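Worked problem 6 (solution included).
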Amino acid sequence: MTSSFQYGANVHANGIRQHYLRYGGKGTSLVLVPGITSPAITWGFVAEELARTHDVYVLDIRGRGLSQGGDDLAYDLDAYAGDVRGFIDALGLKDCVVLGHSMGARIAIRLGRQDASGIAALVLVDPPVSGPGPQALPIQPAMVCRFHPPCAQGHGCRSDAPLLPHMDRRATPAACRMAAYLRGTGHPHHI
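Solution. The predicted structure is:
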C-alpha cells in the first residue's frame, strides 16, 4: 500500500508557530486534534485511513511535538481553541471536519462554542468531559444536532454496518469506530 502522506509543515497562526502533517489531499478537509500527550506523528496510521476520503491535517498542539511552546504561552482551552481556529483560517479551510481525541475533543468543543463558522462537523473521540461528580457535556444540543445528520433512526449513521475490515489491527477500537463514522458506516454515539 502506498502512503498518502504528503508533507509536514509549519504555519504561523494565533501568534505561534504551529506544526502539522498533511495526508491525502482529496475530499473534505479534516483537522485532527490529538490528545495532550500525543504528537501528530503518532497519528500517522489513523491519518492514512482517514485520508482515503478526507484531506487530513494532523496538528501538534502548542507545546507538543514540533509546535511552539514555552513558559510565556498560555496552556488553557481558550488558547488551544484559538490555535485551531487560527490554523483553519491561516490555511483557508472551508466546511472542514474537526476531529478531537481526548483533550483534543475538549479543544474541539471549546472551538465549537467560541466560533463554529466554517466547521461542518465536530467528531469527539473519548472526550474527558467529567470531573468530580457527573457533569453535562459542555456543548449546546443544537450544535450536536447540526453536526450529526439524522438517519432513519435519527442517529446520523447506519448502526448495523460493520467496522472497516481493512483497518490496521494496531488501531484502537475507538480509532476504528472513528474512521467508520467518518466514512458513513458507524454510529456516532459508539465512538
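Discussion: The radius of gyration is 16 Å.
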